[in-house]
Fold this protein.
Amino acid sequence: MKLSNLIKELEILEIKGQVNGVNIEDIAYNSKDVKEGSLFVAIKGHEVDGHKYINNAKENGAVCFVVEEFSNEDLLQIRVEDSRATLADLSHIFFNKPSEKLNVVGITATNGKTTTSFMVEKIFKDFGLETGLVGTVEVKYKDVKIPSLLTTPESRDLQEHTKNMVNCGITDLVMEVSSHAQEMLRIKNMDFDIVSFNNLSRDHIDQHGSFENYARIKSGLIKNAKEDAFVILNFDDEFIKNLGKETKGRVLSYSMDNKSCDFSIENLDLSTGFAKFDFLINKDIEDLDLKAGKFPVDLGLGGYSGVMNGIVAIIIGLVRKIPVVSIRKSLKDFKGVERRFQVIYDKDYKIIDDHFANSKNIAVTMETIEKMDFNKFYILYAIRGNRGENLNRESAEETAKWLKRLGINKIYSTSSVETVTKKDVVFLEEKEAFNKVMKDNDIEVVHLDRLDESCYQVLGKVEKNDLLLLAGCQGMDHGGRIVLEKLTENVDEKEKEEVLKVLEGRAF
């Protein structure tokens, strides 16, 4: 693409060098990815300043440089106010504004983005739509599967993925939209047709400085929605409800029980851990050809969180005008996302694997367990490493509250020292914060540093009709495999294969 055409829509402060006649073959923001004929965008990041790598980019073949500060080098340079924002603009133009050619769904929430996006993708695909997915687990479309390094890719990469989807005949793109992606302008210029905001709780506080800042950033997806976009909001959350007044989009409201909203549910049954409920359309919605009424839903994944995620997935399906019978079948067949209230063993007793990330997630998980039928309840919790005392204290307080409510006075815990990476090591202060909360609530803690030893210990306690919860984020990632391999030590290969089948696709 001619550089003159690429930059003509940009807000440019100053140009050093001659633009005319220059052709751009690619865009790069990492000097290692530069190839001959590339435009290199120097971004000032939190840890790395791309301006320091201008010479590296030149050596690798860059012919033009977008900067916030001119280099002394004799190079063609374009100075802008914000190079990160400019990267998003350049990528949008260079890849021919691909999101405008797709139906794009953006899903944001503190908890449940991944599960909701996978639900929506299944509903779309089962109905016959050509669907792409971008999220925490992977970027996928057609036969392409790329493991994700970020929940939402950098703007240049996101635009390229989107263009490739267009070229492959994809019609619908389902995206998780993280707060970090919004703050880093990765979704700038993405043309969203449907957006949803499912829930909001305290998380990523260290990253964003405060909960208020986190909430403000998170709200951008809704506030910036275009006029003809559908905006799906959880009116049970007052903050999210108020966003309905701050968006140009067409708001659709839902509630767990408030029938004055557009959608709600009733007759919820979680006794087996797998939800059944009636989905209510509370009023005629003419622009979607929906009549007031209700229909039964039988979810194939466990947990109360699945209900809330399912509500959003249903509404998105209805907005896309997918028949109710197809939506219902997809949700019944959907077995969930790994480690999101995942029932990994259900024979003499149940074992549930859940990432238990923060106080909101913990509350939803424990609320489901409270509604289930079981004899004794055991919990093995992997303390969350390198997340600070505050998060661990808040998580411990929420856990202790529910343990007391369930009449449980003992918890098993681990630091998972043999499995966590350096970035997830549990610090002494984090462990002490957890222990202090439990002590203050008269809850006994049985702690072992190693994850495998903790798994074996608690597994030895579980008997018929009991329930075991493997809880925790990175520290518990390997727990399910450790437990199931222990359970199948003395069974034949066929039975072992059947039990371990639930772990298919896991990287651990």
Summary: The chain has three domains: 3-94, 98-333, 342-502. The first helix runs from residue 3 to 6.
